[in-house]
Design goal:
The complex is a heterodimer of chains A (about 120) and B (about 110). Chain A has about 120 residues and is an all-beta fold. Chain A is about 0% helix and about 50% strand. In chain A, strands 2, 4, 5, 6, 9, 10 and 11 form a 7-stranded mixed β-sheet that branches. A 4-stranded antiparallel β-sheet of chain A has the order 1-3-8-7, with no helix packed on it. Chain B has no helices and 11 strands. By secondary structure, chain B is mostly beta strands. Helices cover about 0% and strands about 60% of the residues of chain B. The chains are: A mainly beta (about 120), B mainly beta (about 110). Chains A and B meet through β4, β5, β9 and β10 of A and β4, β5, β9 and β10 of B.
Amino acid sequence: EPEVTQTPSHQVTQMGQEVILRCVPISNHLYFYWYRQILGQKVEFLVSFYNNEISEKSEIFDDQFSVERPDGSNFTLKIRSTKLEDSAMYFCASIPSVEYYNEQFFGPGTRLTVL
Amino acid sequence: EDKVVQSPLSLVVHEGDTVTLNCSYEVTNFRSLLWYKQEKKAPTFLFMLTSSGIEKKSGRLSSILDKKELSSILNITATQTGDSAIYLCALNSGGSNYKLTFGKGTLLTVNP
């Protein structure tokens, strides 16, 4: 069964460093999302991406964040200068289209630890 | 701003018990309500509800939506230790991008 994949599974970085989290959505999907979950808190929407551009972003998604679909398969989240409070689990999700929407398919997540 | 409130926040039961998890919401433009199960990492999909009063069922799990009361319940009968997880309720509302707004989840612990 097709699935969303994410790499790395765990990333440890120093405060102020740039990180890139990678996702490979399911191949025929058109809408892509990033969510984050700080330990013990709820899953929060960060950004949605469709047709090679951001369709919506939350207040969390400030200038330090950016997303890109550099080729036909990868979908990346970049944090330019990480802060301690960026430590969280980051989930990528995708859907095929809004006409056939049943669920969002989530990847296994990347645990980001900022020291 | 859309809001999703789940209760209880945590629940401890014994194997064989039946549990009911609650989700209430406030939304400007309801599209659907989804239930997910989160064990160690990624949320895994359980149900999507769009119409009021129609029960969705999968094995020992079932869920129903009440649009009048702006709520949904998730029932699990004959619980097993493998049901131990966080159960997430999420709202899909308005806009063209189908983002999800999640509740804090209910942590269910099923003891043998």
